[in-house]
Specification:
alpha+beta, Jelly Rolls, six-stranded antiparallel sheet, three-stranded antiparallel sheet, disordered N terminus, binds 2-oxoglutaric acid, binds fe (ii) ion
């Protein structure tokens, strides 16, 4: 089961620069502008759900119906439209990650299966209804890892990365992330349960044109800009690999199709 989303021209779409950054970093943070008591009401709904029985899994949307408003917020729809096209859909899979006090956290992992392409078909939209502090076990993400495939067992031995980002975010933040970004829950050392709503969204069609707030006159320059990006995790060989992946994805998102794999090689410095 999935639910269609329609769109309107007034949606706040991402800019070229934001899309460029999303491709490199693998995430984009959206700040909704609900009144603060909206999120407190969501937390009360969630507390009632968890007090009444086990985690409802995919049923969480029916059991905590205020969540529908979060995923219909124009800024959330604008960001999802930008990365997944105008006719994206909410996937039936969703989960509320309730991290209680004393929760030990998780190892680094990827949620998707590292498909062997670099197109953007699915993203997570992780909503935080509370102000998340460092003690509450924030989600950790490792920017730029969405195209990196490491054996999950090996990831277990990784601990702290210098460039990891703790999502210590204000209530109402929705983190749109590539489905393959490396991430983990960190230990909850606080006295509060931390809630994170993980919803999955997917594109229904390959792009034929940009679905963000695009200025095509800038696109060639932005394409070569990928040559200048060097992730902290990359050595030279990884940097070369990454720029080819980003360039491919950038063109694919604009609806540009290439017959051969290597026309992009022209853009090597
Ligand atoms: O709770 C979190 O912050 C992350 C949970 C997660 O990544 C998972 O269970 O797949
Ligand atoms: Fe996960």
């Amino acid at each position: 089961m999935s639910e269609s989303k329609s769109t309107s021209p007034a949606l706040p779409l991402l800019s070229d620069a934001e899309m460029h950054t999303f491709l490199v970093q693998g995430y984009h943070l959206v700040q909704t502008d609900f009144a603060p008591d909206f999120h407190a009401a969501v937390v009360r709904e969630l507390e009632a759900v968890f007090a009444g029985g086990p985690n409802p899994g995919n049923e969480i949307l029916e059991r905590a119906p205020l969540l529908q408003q979060v995923y219909e917020h124009p800024r959330v729809r604008g960001a999802l439209t930008s990365v997944l096209g105008h006719d994206y859909e909410m996937h039936a899979h969703r989960h509320c990650h309730a991290s209680p006090p004393g929760m030990r956290g998780q190892q680094w992992h990827q949620d998707d299966v590292n498909r062997r392409h670099h197109q953007i078909w699915r993203v997570l939209a992780m909503y935080y209804p509370q102000d998340v502090t460092a003690e509450m076990g924030p989600t950790m993400i490792l920017p730029g890892t969405q195209f990196r495939n490491a054996p999950t067992a090996r990831m277990a031995s990784y601990q702290t990365f210098r460039t990891q980002r703790a999502l210590c975010v204000p209530a109402g933040t929705v983190a749109i992330t590539h489905y393959d970004i490396w991430h983990r829950a960190s230990p909850n050392r606080s006295e509060r349960t931390r809630y994170m709503l993980k919803f999955l969204f997917e594109r229904t069609h390959a792009p034929t044109q940009p679905s963000w707030n695009a200025d095509p006159s800038q696109h060639e320059e932005l394409l070569t800009d990928f040559n200048r990006v060097w992730l902290p995790l990359d050595n030279q060989s990884d940097a070369y690999k990454h720029r080819v992946l980003w360039m491919n994805a950038w063109q694919w998102l604009q609806g540009i199709r290439r017959d051969t794999e290597d026309s992009i090689i022209d853009h090597y410095p």
